[in-house]
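User: Quick one: structure for sequence A, then sequence B.

Assistant: Sequence A:
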Amino acid sequence: MAVRKEEVEEVLAAMAELPPAYRAALTLRHMQQLSYQEVADALGIPIGTVKTHLHRARAALKAKLAARRVN
């Protein structure tokens, strides 16, 4: 249980380092479980932009987590 909590905290810390637009899209899609269209509506951006933000946010998050594990 403690390991799981540490992993969640690590992910949240890495998310905090993302650009605000990426963080918002990621939070709405994965934490609030909104659809792509709902995220687009909530942020006032086209659905294609939501998909781009999510793709870039996931890639950046993956890189940040990998870098944290190396250090």
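Sequence B:
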Amino acid sequence: AQELYGGASASAIYTSSDDLLDDEVIDSSALVGRVFGGARWNPDGNTSRVQASSSYYNYFDRKNRWSNALEAEQQLRIGRTTRVGIEVSGATNISTLEARSADQLAAAARLVLEPGDH
């Protein structure tokens, strides 16, 4: 069975520069809007998922930015209580500790043990 999902959110971020050094100027306060959508499939107990999202950061004291992401995940059931999976994702124009704008690719492997009733 295929499941489609999606949504939207709005939030606010507040930062304070009270504890910064004299030569640091960082203000990341912003209003944020986000939309996302995806699909999930679950044939024979295995799960596949694809999701896309887009976020807009409206900063008060610096240049505004869009950030977009795409994720894909595959989980395989290898026993009654065990699943293995892999997830890959990519995002553009994210903010990191080292840079105000960076692109990112990530991959993760997962082992899930589910003993007992769920």
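The CA atoms of residues 22 and 31 lie 26 Å apart. The chain has a mean pLDDT of 87.

User: Thanks, that's what I needed.
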